[in-house]
Design goal:
273 residues, alpha/beta, 5-stranded parallel sheet, 4-stranded antiparallel sheet, 11 strands, globular
């Protein structure tokens, strides 16, 4: 009997207080939020094999273990990270921000897909591997960039390369010769370019794709809300309002999590400029 009383007494004395339980719950919530901010909302893009070296005025280097901010996620190691320079100018980097900001474009690629802005071929590499993609037209205004891709990546060995055709033209004036199911535009030198909305409208008028993805559209959506003096968090209804206002059939209109993704992107870019 005495032993039973002692055990009950010990159990009662070791029971955590409500204050302790609240503190534990707060720590758990903080951890879950940290994990959420570290987890990209879309499947990661696959990176093709590149050959580093000097290619005339271009230099491609691989620099791993850099700490960089993501697009939808917080600061993290960038591994692998390829850096392409033209002379003394950094032209492109395949860090977390670049990878995350185009990942959801691949999810919508289908039928006849048009990619405006070749870059290092990252998006192209992922898009042509998709079974639902029948053909891909790449619109690139600089033929030197197309030749460079062949030197640094041997794209003719990529799965689905037979689907690809190139057009050397200005994205703002090019018009397709057949209907376009999906259009991805990445022609701006940096995220948050203020020309995105105007350029996107001009391009859509010429192309009339069924669905469109503009690189950095998440930031323009948040900017649109700030113009209307809307307070966060953004909503899907507000995103529909934005899509209707600019007159472009942008992707993610049916994703209830997308407004939060946009807010995450805006916060990340402002934090890690």
């Amino acid at each position: 009997m005495s032993t039973q009383l002692n055990l009950v007494s010990l159990s009662m004395s070791s029971k955590p207080s409500q204050e302790s339980l609240d503190a534990i719950a707060a720590l758990a919530e903080t951890y879950r939020e940290h994990q959420r901010l570290q987890t990209p909302p879309y499947p990661a893009l696959k990176i093709p094999k590149y050959r580093t070296g000097h290619y005339g005025e271009w230099v491609l280097k691989r620099r791993d273990a850099f700490i960089m901010g993501g697009y939808f996620t917080a600061i993290q190691p960038a591994n692998p990270n390829y850096i392409l320079s033209q002379g003394d100018t950094l032209w492109m980097s395949l860090g977390p921000r670049e990878l995350e900001s185009q990942a959801h474009h691949v999810l919508y690629a289908c039928g006849h897909t048009v990619i405006m802005g070749l870059g290092m071929g990252l998006l192209l590499f992922n898009v042509i591997a998709e079974k639902q993609v029948e053909r891909v037209t790449v619109v690139e205004r600089d033929s030197k960039v197309i030749k460079l891709l062949h030197k640094i990546a041997q794209p003719s060995t990529w799965p689905g390369w037979e689907k690809v055709s190139f057009v050397v033209a200005d994205a703002l004036t090019w018009q397709p010769d057949s209907p376009v199911d999906f259009l991805s535009v990445d022609i701006w030198p940096k995220l948050g370019d203020m020309r995105l909305r105007e350029n996107g409208q001009q391009i859509h008028q010429n192309v009339q794709a069924k669905q469109v993805a503009l690189w950095g559209q998440e930031l323009d959506f948040i900017h649109f809300l700030s113009e209307l003096r809307k307070q966060p968090p953004p909503t899907l209804a507000q995103y529909h309002e934005y899509v209707q206002a600019i007159g472009i059939p942008l992707i993610e209109a049916n994703n209830p999590n997308y407004p939060d993704n946009c807010w995450r992107a805006a916060q990340s870019v402002l934090t890690f400029l």
